[in-house]
Amino acid sequence: MVALALPPRLRRRRFPLAAWVAMIPMVLTVAFAYLGTMLWTARVSLSNSRTFPSGDFAGMTQYVRLFHNDRWLLSLQNIVIYGACFIVACMVIGLLLAIFIDQRVVAEGALRTVFLYPYAMSFVATGLVWQWILNPQLGIQEVLHKFGFVHAHFDWIVEQDYVIYTLVIATVWQASGLVMALLLAGLRGIDDEIWKAARVDGIPRWRVYASIVVPMLGPSISTAFVLLFVMVVKLYDAVVAMTQGGPGTASEVPAKFIMDYLFGRANIGLASAASIVLLTTVLAILAPFFYARSRAALRKDV
């Protein structure tokens, strides 16, 4: 009876032996496949390894070389621009689509499928499709010329200053449906009494969404943010399929830089240093985020 009076976070949770045994494969995977490879990568980043790992110790030499590499600095600049535009656009479009479908529109099931279908495609397929669409000789620009708009220009994919935004367009088209699905699930969990009270008080529907409903979607929004952030860090396939990092190195991103130096230039020391920098950046951004969520969850349990 005493245990029942304790807060949920203080109650002792007992797991049967079968549960612990079932966790062994995942624990081993995390220990060796994830932590082991991260430690090995960190060790290689502190060496002068080229084609094969070497046992020498070079200290922070690779990191100094990395941050004196113009291509790496450009990739960081590109990923920041891409990430900000991609996450904001996906959140806004996904929220608008979720609100639209939440109005119990006709053919709701079909619309959900249409909006979510692009996410089922690979980034390679998405990149190739959008490469054709944005090609100045085949795509939107050529169509506009055929309709008589001979001075219209939409050649961003071959313009160094705008090519990164073509990656945003393609990947937002693919990922915004995922955000829509997550936020729609959150919207369907909103108590109907809120809407009844709002109608009684005469509060405009948009005001209810802005002031009440959207703040209540905090868990769904945070989940969508984490998934989108992971997509930003992993951006590689779409770049290779659409631009190959070009024109020149204008659409270079960290993942492509790492892969090129790891396999193309046979410099695994520099590639490992870039990987550790990227991992550290991700942890520095996500760790406080997850800490704040865990603290909020503990406060609710008390």
UniProtKB/TrEMBL annotation:
UniProt entry tagged with the keyword Membrane: yes
Membrane spanning residue stretches: 17-40, 79-101, 113-133, 162-187, 208-233, 268-291
Membrane-protein topology: Multi-pass membrane protein
Location within or outside the cell: Cell membrane
Domain ABC transmembrane type-1, residue spans: 76-289
Predominant location: membrane
Signal peptide limits: none
Pfam (any one): BPD_transp_1
Keyword annotations of the record: Cell membrane, Membrane, Transmembrane, Transmembrane helix, Transport
Any one Gene Ontology cellular component term annotated for this protein: plasma membrane
A GO BP entry: transmembrane transport
PANTHER family noted in UniProt: ABC TRANSPORTER PERMEASE PROTEIN
Family according to the record: Belongs to the binding-protein-dependent transport system permease family.
Protein name as catalogued: Melibiose/raffinose/stachyose import permease protein MelD
Organism encoding this protein: Paraburkholderia saeva
